[in-house]
């Protein structure tokens, strides 16, 4: 009985709910003037218990685009403000394989003409800028440049350097020493006294024409450097020595060939001037003044390393010091060395680097002093 009562109550409840729903539907059809129009949102009815409620969104858009600046549905307003709508876009340009967009979709604005691809003429112009000359033309230009440099460096007279020495005669009527110079080269003038010691200058040397010759002197020394930018010129140089009452005058010549058919010119890379007398730095006297053959041309030739043709070189047995040479000429021996000579000799002559030449009678033995040690040499004389 109890279960029957529960079933009957449930059926009655369901029948009453169905009747109410039909009555509400009939009432809505009876009042058509109360329906909401398009664009108005339908009123939300309070839902019954256990029912889902659907909220209708905005109405479907028509085929016309939104006005420029108007909010677009489905687009974030912040993004729309950051990127406003313009008449320039993919639809305005013709893409390869696709026609341009419909002009009616651009708010009455005509589409822009299509962009043409670059032509091959621009590539040719770029190649002309990158490589204006052919490799063969570049080689010809480099060869022409080398020929120009070679012609610029060509000299009508070629200089040959020499180291020599000369004794100065300060007496009236004597000839002046000559210094040979060439353009582009330096000539060093060394002043020595009769003992071979340096004789320093007391004042700056003077040249006759500063536009043609340049003389540089390091104060307190005995060396003067002379140069010239011009060939075929002549001039003179005046040297003022410490303690000397007479200046030394040197004749300067430049650029003259040694012969008519010879394009070579020997110049003095170093010229030692031996001035008669003892300078302020003279060495201690170990020989009499008569031993120094200041104006002996034959000793001068052996000192310069240019002996006469008839001179015969003598071989020596033993520990021969470096830079030592021995000749036999006209019944005498001529010894050229930088070492101290222990054997008796007749005459001597010195150069600026310490080299000396000695003249003595023919003998089978000579004695030198090398670093304080005596060295005796046996000579193969003729």
Automatic annotation (TrEMBL):
Compositional bias ranges of the Polar residues kind? 79-89
Sorted alphabetically, which Pfam families does this protein's record hold? T4BSS_DotH_IcmK (PF12293)
Per UniProt, which keywords does this protein have?
A: Signal
Residues of the region (Disordered) are: 23-121
Signal peptide limits: 1-21
Enumerate composition-biased segments (Low complexity).
Answer: 23-51, 61-78
Q: What is this protein called?
A: Conjugal transfer protein TraN
């Amino acid at each position: 009985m109890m279960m029957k009562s529960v079933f009957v109550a449930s059926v009655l409840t369901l029948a009453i709910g169905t009747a109410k729903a039909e009555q509400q539907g009939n009432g809505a059809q009876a009042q058509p003037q109360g329906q909401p129009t398009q664009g108005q949102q339908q009123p939300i009815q309070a839902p019954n218990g256990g029912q889902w409620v659907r909220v209708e969104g905005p109405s479907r858009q028509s085929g016309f685009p939104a006005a420029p600046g108007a909010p677009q549905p489905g687009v974030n307003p912040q993004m729309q403000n950051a990127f406003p709508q313009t008449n320039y876009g993919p639809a305005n340009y013709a893409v390869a394989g696709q026609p341009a967009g419909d002009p009616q979709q651009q708010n009455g604005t005509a589409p822009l003409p299509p962009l043409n691809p670059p032509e091959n003429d621009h590539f040719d112009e770029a190649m002309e800028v990158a490589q204006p000359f052919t490799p063969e033309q570049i080689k010809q230009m480099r060869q022409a440049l080398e020929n120009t440099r070679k012609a610029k460096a060509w000299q009508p007279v070629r200089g040959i350097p020499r180291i020599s020495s000369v004794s100065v005669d300060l007496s009236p009527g004597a000839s002046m020493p000559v210094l040979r110079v060439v353009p582009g080269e330096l000539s060093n003038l060394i002043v020595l006294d009769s003992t071979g010691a340096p004789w320093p200058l007391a004042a700056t040397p003077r040249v006759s024409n500063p536009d043609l010759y340049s003389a540089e002197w390091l104060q307190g020394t005995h060396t003067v450097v002379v140069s010239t930018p011009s060939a075929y010129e002549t001039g003179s140089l005046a040297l003022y020595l410490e303690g000397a009452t007479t200046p030394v005058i040197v004749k300067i010549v430049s650029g003259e060939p040694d012969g008519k058919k010879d394009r070579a010119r020997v110049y003095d890379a170093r010229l030692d001037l031996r001035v008669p007398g003892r300078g302020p730095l003279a060495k201690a006297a170990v020989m009499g003044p008569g031993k120094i053959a200041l104006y002996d041309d034959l000793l001068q030739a052996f000192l310069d390393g240019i002996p006469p043709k008839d001179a015969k070189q003598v071989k020596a047995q033993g520990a021969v010091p470096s830079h030592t040479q021995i000749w036999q000429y006209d019944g005498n021996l001529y010894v050229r060395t930088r070492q101290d000579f222990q054997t008796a000799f007749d005459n001597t002559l010195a150069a600026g680097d310490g080299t000396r030449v000695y003249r003595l009678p023919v003998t089978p033995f000579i004695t030198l002093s090398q670093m304080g040690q005596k060295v005796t040499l046996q000579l193969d004389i003729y």
